Amino acid sequence: MERIESLTQRLAAALSQRPMHDPGVEAPGSDLVVSAGMAWAKLLAEQPARILEQQVKYWGATLAHFAEMQSQFAKGKLTAPEAEEPETDKRFRNPLWQSHPYFNSVKTQYQINAQAMREAAQELDMLDAVDQHRLNWLTNQIIDMFAPTNFFPTNPDAIQKALETEGESLVKGLENLVRDVETHGGEMVVSLADRNAFAVGENIGTAKGRVVRREKLFELIQFSPTTEKVHATPILVFPPWINKFYILDLKPENSLIRWIVDQGYTLFVVSWKNPDQSYADTGLEDYVSAYLTAMDAVEEITAEPKLNAIGYCIGGTTLSLTLALMAQRGDDRVKSATFFTTLTDFSEQGEFTPFLQDDFVEGITAEVERSGIFASHLMTRTMSFLRANDLVWGPAIRSYLMGESPPAFDLLYWNGDATNLPGRMTVDYLRGLCQQNLLVGDGYPMMGHNLKLSDIKLPLCAIGCETDHIAPWKYSWRGVKQMGSEDKSFIMSESGHIAGIVNPPSKKKYGHYAGNSDFSTDPETWQAGATFTPGSWWPTWEKWLQPHTGDLIDAREPEEGFGPAPGSYVHERH
User: DSSP letter string over 236-304?
Assistant: First the structure.
């Protein structure tokens, strides 16, 4: 009890430190509520029978369920009815959800409620398809939030654990909650991984190299060669600045950085600065300038007039802006470009549709005007709610209700090591690219030029991932289709945004589709004409890259520079 009292006081103190955010970043605006209310009123006026039918269906299912349970108790039969089909929802794997009448009743009623809510939302005749999408998404968020597994009295696993440990699991759960709230400055953000299990540069991100340049926005790392000879043309990688670059170097056995170096390439990787409020006025053009500065440095260090560039996620989006600018300037020093899970055509917004409307974007704009940055935990929270059961409620149950420590999982550790975004850059990206889709439409204005995807005419290869929910491969494919190059290839890896890219040949885990260079139709037709190959896409991409790599020369050792990889910027947290 003393521990509980002490922890409760700490929790109250930590919660009091929670910063105030603009309401627009916390929930959809009132316009969506008004739109849904008008749609319901319209349905009530024009088709009252449909609403009555929905209500009768819901209450009929509820009363039938209640009658069944009453019948069992009346007969003294305290076992739940046999399920007609096996339970597929992993939240209800505990046999007690089926065999115990209390838990079975709770689960069944939850499922009845969830189905009724989904049907009610879907049957509203919303005036705007985007509003309908957002309403369906919000409805599913509410359904997930009120799942019985999220509450101690209706979670058999948590109750069993508390009984087995004589309540110790609940105290540890409170300790985990207090730790998370204190760590995140009053925000309730569940830890996905053990923060003490990894140290960048010690047991992850350990590929050897040197920081050869340090600029305001980035450090440039040159990795040490592992072969006597290397291809003359260097490779320069631009990771996303939403997270840290070491996703490409988590462990030696799945490190894309090490694999590229082992194939005989001089590899440079940008490690982005984690911006604080002093970077509030840093915009997209500043990142494009940083790309050009990094290219200047690679050219100076290697004395090579050409390089091959790689951009990952938003790093690839900004690479497309940079290449369009270079094309208009007549700068041809990039031999080829590779895009990892990159969106450049935002005409379809997919699962991000709820977050890319005016109310949410205006909320973010107000937030960054106030604070100067879009804080990393806000971005992480947004991404997490795209997969709420896996990245929010599931970890919260294990940590807070079960009292379990977060796992020592390197990928989840990296996922929690996010960075802030500069205020102006955030608005530039959301308004100019995501909402207005200027790269495809009228052109993105930058540095006196009007940049379009059609300006990009160099050889390019794009890698999409089949189950990617952040940058869906079909949207990525459509962006490549609109680029002006006559020499372009597309590879679709199995799995998602991270696992599909970090997919080493040694694992022999996920296969890939490639070989079809026809961009005249649509993504589905392209996939039907592509060839499936088991295993990693890395060798397929490297085979595509080889014609652009130059002759073999003596390996280049990095200069002394500013210290060993992974550098200092990668350790910054604000």
Answer: EEE--SSS-GGGGGSSGGG-HHHHHHHTT--EEEEEE----GGGTT--HHHHHHHHHHHHHHHHHHH--
Using 50, 70 and 90 to split pLDDT, how confident is the model at 111? very high
Quick one: residue 434, left, alpha or beta (phi over 0 = left, psi -120 to 50 = alpha)?
alpha
pLDDT of residue 212: 98
* pLDDT attached to residue 324: 98
For the chain, the structural domain boundaries read 47-150
> Quick check: pTM over 0.85?
yes
Could you tell me how far CA 433 lies from the centroid of its own chain? 18
**Reduced 3-state DSSP string for 440-490:** CCCCEEECCEEECHHHCCCCEEEEEECCCCCCCHHHHHHHHHCCCCCCEEE
Judged against a pLDDT cut of 60, whether residue 78 lies above it is answered with no
Beta carbons of 387 and 415 less than 8 angstroms apart: no
Compute the distance between CA of residue 407 and CA of residue 430 in angstroms, rounded to an integer: 34
Question: What average pLDDT score do residues 48-67 get?
Answer: 87
pLDDT of res. 43:
77
Catalytic, 313? Answer: yes
Q: Provide DSSP, 7-25.
A: HHHHHHHHHTTPPP--GGG
| 215, 293 contact by CB (below 8 A) | yes
User: Taking a C-beta distance cutoff of 8 angstroms, is the pair 564, 271 a contact?
Assistant: no
Does the structure show a pLDDT above 80 at 77?
no
Q: In this structure, are residues 517 and 489 in contact, taking their beta carbons and an 8 Å threshold? A: yes
Query: E strand or H helix at 161, and its extent?
Result: helix 156-164
Amino acid at 205: G
Question: Rounded to the nearest 5 degrees, what angle is found at the Cα of 28, between the Cα atoms of 25 and 33?
Answer: 155
Mean pLDDT (the chain) is 91
Residue 552's H or E segment, with its range, is strand 552-554
Is residue 316 within 8 A of residue 449, CB to CB? The reply is no
The answer to whether the CB of 457 falls within 8 A of the CB of 327 is yes
Provide CB contacts within 8 A for 332, sequence distance 6+.
326, 458
Distance CA 572, CA 200 (A): 11
Residue 502 tokens read as 């970090």
State whether residue 491 is helix, strand or coil.
strand
- How far apart CA 570 and CA 273 sit, in angstroms, is 7
pLDDT above 90 (res 127): no
Catalytic residue among 313, 434, 461, 465: 313
b (16+ CB within 10 A) / e for 426-451: bbbbbbbbbeebbbbeebbebeebeb
368 three-state secondary structure: helix
pLDDT of residue 80: 52
Whether residue 103 has pLDDT greater than 70? yes
Pairing of strands 512-514, 488-493: antiparallel
pLDDT at 509 over 80: yes
Contact 338, 463 (CB under 8 A): yes
Calculate helix-pair angle for 101-122, 129-145, nearest 10 degrees: 170
Three-state DSSP at 553 gives strand
> Looking at the DSSP assignment, which residues form a beta bridge with residue 421?
374
Q: What was the pLDDT predicted at 256?
A: 98
Please say whether the beta carbons of 406 and 193 come within 8 A.
Answer: yes
